[in-house]
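OP here, attaching both records as promised.
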Amino acid sequence: MRLRTHGKALAGPVVVLLVLAAACGVTVATMPAELEPWGWYGLAALTGLAALAWVVVPFLRWRSTTYTVTTHRLVTRSGILARRGHDVPLDRVVDVRYERSLSDRLLGCGTLLLQTASEATPVVLPDVPDVRQVHQLVSELVFGVQDAPQGAVVEEERR
């Protein structure tokens, strides 16, 4: 299973992009004629820099962050120019938990926490889409088949 963080990470950049577009439009409409065309050039440069910093970089950060669950390990990769990765062997995992805030429940995501035998702090994977399904999959891979009756699993998948 290969995942990206939930799309809610892009809500802020989308709002910033809309505000930048509106502010740019209002500024162009109210710009005095004696500032043209250099005022437009300056406005375009400022808007471009702001969009780069607050829209493009967060999008690239979201796009380059992946979580991959295989039958033997959990692989995390992130980074735009410099890549970072972390491989967690599933046979070292001793506890699998997830947390969901109210907004996470509404959006269908959450934070997955994996406690390994060798690390004091858990491996935290924020904004995992369908975190309950991922939690169930990782738990089954780590601890074997769950004791839940098959009907309960089927009912959970239908929701």
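Record two, same layout:
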Amino acid sequence: MKRMPFERPADHYDERIISIDEQICALLKERKEVSNNNPGFPPTEQIEEWAKKYDQYEDVLNSIFSTLRMEEEFKPKVEPKNFIKHLQILKSVEKNARLYTVTFIRQFENASVVQLNIDWEEKTEDIDDQRHLRHHHFLNLSLGENYECRQDSGSGSGGHFRQNYIVSPPIPDDPSGLKLVFKEYHDFYKGKPTGLEIEFDLD
């Protein structure tokens, strides 16, 4: 889904606070660097203490830190344009009674689209008792520091799930030497990793 362009919500701005706002921006940058861009979320007790100390509403602070946690969602997104061809991959890995497969990569002029398929045997009597096992949060596809990867559309039904990832710049038509690494997290915003990683060597 394409993001609507941002519109400034007000014409008024008190320029006496411009240096303060710049300090806020500088502190946000420092926060990312010190935490290695993985700050987590402040404890409830800390939010309560800061709210009292700095005369703020707790919900305002919760909203600020929640938004900071979603930073990746605000990054400018590359949308694939001008389909070129499919690259055949045909790689599978089986772990924990699940088959993880990448059969092909869609090549576009400005990006590639990698599709990860997950298949498993789902017994009717297990659906309710093991519902948590049906959904995976593979939020991170990595091909190395030269590539930007983001999760795109996904869907599934009993015993099958597929997830697409947009990669830019495009993967070379000869991907030999590259490795697709899928890392699973407990929640959507890359909180605590589950420890499960799936790797495909593209040789």
